[in-house]
Amino acid sequence: MNSAYRIEKDSLLVTALNSIIGYELGAKIAKRAYAEGRSIKDVAAEMTDLPRERLDVLLDPARLTYGGLVSREGNGG
């Protein structure tokens, strides 16, 4: 299993969405992804109204390592 695949399934990744979807829904997404062995992004796409393209930006591990907040448009700042 490659590291990118492991990162996509890490429940900590969902914290990047908490300011947008709330902690409670984020926790439900993380629990379901873990229970089903699926990626956070795939489960979030099913359980929220966020477009897949926006999830791609919001849950990009490389972008998240730079820190700072992500605006509603998915741009840094």
Describe the structure.
This protein has 77 residues and is an all-alpha fold. It has one domain (3-64): Fumarase/aspartase (C-terminal domain) (Ribonucleotide Reductase Protein R1, domain 1, Orthogonal Bundle), CATH 1.10.40.30. It has six helices and no strands. It is globular, with a radius of gyration of 12 Å. The model has no long low-confidence stretch (mean pLDDT 82).
Descriptive labels:
77 residues, mainly alpha, globular, 6 helices, Ribonucleotide Reductase Protein R1, domain 1
Summarize the structure.
This protein is mostly helical and 77 residues long. 57% of the residues lie in helices and 0% in strands. It has helices at 3-9, 18-21, 23-36, 40-47, 52-58, 61-64.
Strand content: under 5%
Quaternary state of the chains: single chain
For the residues shown, what is the average pLDDT?
A: 82
Secondary structure tally: strands: 0
C-alpha geometry: globular
Helix segment count? 6
Q: Indicate the percent of residues in helices.
A: 55-70%
Protein topology:
Elements: H1 3-9, H2 18-21, H3 23-36, H4 40-47, H5 52-58, H6 61-64
Helix pairs in contact: 3-4
